[in-house]
Design a protein that fits this description.
There is one protein chain. It contains no helices and 11 strands. By secondary structure, the chain is mainly β. About 0% of the residues lie in helices and about 50% in strands. The chain is globular, with a radius of gyration of 13 Å. About 35% of the residues are buried.
């Protein structure tokens, strides 16, 4: 079991930016998926970065606004969110799966605790 610790997020006005971090003791063999769950909605996969840095986008609504990165030396992944919109308000989660990205949520076995992101004027 790999413990993931998230940090960052918060509240921002529309058009603003936020960054969420996801740290663990060891991430080099894992792809990091980024998910969100808005109130009353199911958790959904946004994008994922493989263990070697290949990024897959799974949600067109965040394309060109959100990006994933990682620092393997620091065992940390990042979700950079730009041009945030009110509809981006949700709890954001990181999760890991071995090596390559997958679009099945049940293939992600380790989860962060979740980080609230609120976009409001």
């Amino acid at each position: 079991q790999l413990a993931l610790m998230q940090s960052g997020g918060g509240m921002v006005r529309p058009g603003g930016s936020l960054k969420v971090s996801c740290a663990a003791s060891e991430l080099n063999d894992y792809a990091i998926g980024w998910f969100r769950q808005a109130p009353g909605k199911d958790k959904s996969l946004l994008l994922c970065i493989s263990n070697i840095g290949h990024i897959t986008n799974y949600d067109d609504s965040v394309k060109d606004r959100f990006s994933a990165s990682r620092d393997n030396a620091e065992n940390t992944g990042f979700l950079q969110m730009n041009n945030l919109k009110p509809e981006d308000t949700a709890v954001y989660f990181c999760a890991t799966t071995l090596y390559t990205c997958r679009n099945q949520m049940n293939r992600y076995y380790n989860w962060g605790q979740g980080t609230q992101v609120t976009v409001s004027a």
